[in-house]
Write a structure and sequence with these properties.
510 residues; 6-stranded mixed sheet; 17 helices
């Protein structure tokens, strides 16, 4: 099918977009129809201390973007990708009960203790193969039982499934996003009956009634059915909504322009979070994997995304926002990279995954606190803060990819960085040096392109599997290759030891 156009709804933690992608002659051309903010990422209200998503503002931006996409011509399919774990609760009439809670809210601390009191993390891992994160949906559902809205809830829909429901009227749960909940058995690609029993029997969470039917990437959910916005196909039918790989990392991994699968490339999906790992044909649920806190999330075409969540660009975003609010200084991403490149290397290193950095708010004070507690010298100026963050990300990438290889048996040839981090030349170069592997950066639009090629295949415009979809991405974009420098191993081995060895006694380092 030549000249086939699809629309991608791509929601991130700081912004959302609607894009059109047209496949013609084996190449995919992407154009942006709308971009809209996701607030500062969260909304807080008086009397409601939890952090929540302003999902109705996102819905407004989606509607406007789809209307613009339709104005530009026919659309054969619509796909949606978003972050994971968070969900909206619906009442008996299918109406949303309040804004969805945001994963950076501290509301689950008690729920984690209560769940682990009945089933420790090692036992949970045997069922779900999921990295422990306090914000996993499993813990959020338990936390909800103390809220008044829980008594009204009749269903829970993850964010992309909620948007799809509003577009079509049909409730489903796409498996790549469902696998972030901590309730999926990655071996069966189905809800874990043991964990559903735990939630229902021990905490009164009415699963599986709350949960929707699971569907695989590429499933057509139904035609778009909004009374005031018409998006039509070239045959003048209502455009179908497709459950693509709706977790944004799953779409990003589909959009990696690398041939083959099963452990031949490492990936870094670099955005607010960095998702670092390998693509496998089967989950890894060993004791060693659990101890390393790796997760087995599901991917397109029966794959498993064996990965670790790393804080990613969040700390850089919050640092730049802090400086902007303090004195009005606007620092662009290219400027930030140049500033970091001018600072001395390996001066200050931190563990970017420490929980101290999870919450929104001023970041440099927390960097200083971590450095003091771990015997690292304090950054002395803004370039040094930026250098510390970027080098520390490279250290975290090195450790995660090394562990992924050791735990899974994968033999990696390259590291592919997709998403915004692929534009950070310093980060890409340092990652090549840190891992000892060539880094292929791009495409920046890997997530939306992965979304689009699954939708295109669902409507018959692409034949075949991941190789064919990735070939379309490879033919449609340019990448940059960074080779590792010589004699880097000892430098980065020492850097990794500084970050991840037990903390020394605190010193007033400067």
């Amino acid at each position: 099918m030549s000249g086939c156009t699809v629309a991608a709804i791509d929601l991130g933690a700081s912004s959302g977009r609607v894009l059109r992608g047209t496949l013609d002659g084996g190449r995919l051309a992407v154009e942006e129809c709308s971009r809209f903010p996701n607030g500062v990422a969260f909304v807080r209200t008086a009397g409601q201390p939890d952090l929540v998503w302003d999902v109705l503002s996102l819905w407004r931006g989606i509607r406007e973007g789809l209307a613009e996409a339709a104005r530009r011509g026919p659309v054969e399919a619509i796909g949606i990708d978003t972050w994971g774990v968070d969900y909206g609760l619906l009442d008996a009439d299918g109406r949303l009960i309040g804004n969805p809670a945001a994963y950076r809210s501290p509301r689950t601390a008690d729920a984690v203790v209560r769940v682990h009191g009945l089933m420790p993390q090692s036992e949970l891992y045997g069922f779900n193969g999921a990295q422990h994160q306090a914000f996993n949906t499993l813990f959020q559902l338990v936390a909800d039982r103390s809220a008044a809205q829980a008594g009204l809830a009749r269903s829970a829909l993850l964010i992309p499934d909620l948007i799809a429901y509003w577009l079509t009227g049909r409730r489903v749960c796409e498996v790549t996003n469902a696998s972030t909940t901590g309730l999926i058995d990655p071996a069966t690609r189905d809800w874990s009956p043991e964990l559903l029993d735990l939630l229902n029997g021990s905490f009164g969470v009415p699963v599986p009634d709350l949960l929707a039917e699971l569907v695989e990437p590429g499933t057509v959910i139904g035609p778009m059915d909004l009374p005031d916005i018409s998006v039509r196909t070239s045959e003048n039918r209502s455009t179908p909504v497709v459950a693509v790989a709706t977790h944004d990392t799953a779409s990003a991994v589909v959009g990696v322009p690398a041939p083959g699968r099963s452990g031949r490339f490492g990936f870094v999906s670099s955005g607010t979070w960095s998702l670092v790992g390998v693509e496998l044909d089967h989950p890894v649920k060993t004791d060693a994997s659990a101890a390393a806190n790796f997760t087995n999330e599901l991917g397109a075409d029966g794959t498993v995304r064996y990965l670790k969540n790393i804080m990613g660009m969040w700390m850089l975003q919050e640092t730049l926002r802090q400086w902007r609010e303090e004195d009005g200084t606007e620092i662009s991403w290219p400027q930030a990279c140049r500033m970091a490149a001018s600072a001395p290397s390996m001066r200050t290193l931190i563990d970017v995954n420490d929980e101290i950095f999870v919450a929104p708010g001023p970041m440099t004070e927390r960097i200083d606190l971590w450095a003091l507690e771990h015997g690292e010298p304090l950054p002395q100026d803004r370039p040094q803060y930026l250098r510390a963050l970027i080098e520390s990300l490279a250290v975290a990438y090195r450790r995660a990819l090394r562990e992924a290889r050791e735990l899974s048996g994968a033999s990696l040839e390259t590291v592919n960085i997709v998403g915004g981090g692929g534009q950070n030349e310093l980060l890409c170069r340092l990652t090549a040096d840190a891992t000892g592997l060539p880094v292929v950066a791009g495409p920046v639009e890997g997530t939306s392109m992965g979304n689009m090629v699954v939708a295109l295949r669902a409507v018959g415009a692409i034949d075949g599997g991941l190789d064919e979809m990735r070939q379309v991405v490879a033919d449609s974009t340019s990448t940059t290759r960074y080779e590792p420098g010589p004699d880097q191993e000892s430098i980065w081995e020492a850097a990794e030891a500084r970050v991840f060895s037990p903390a020394p006694a605190a010193t007033a380092a400067t």
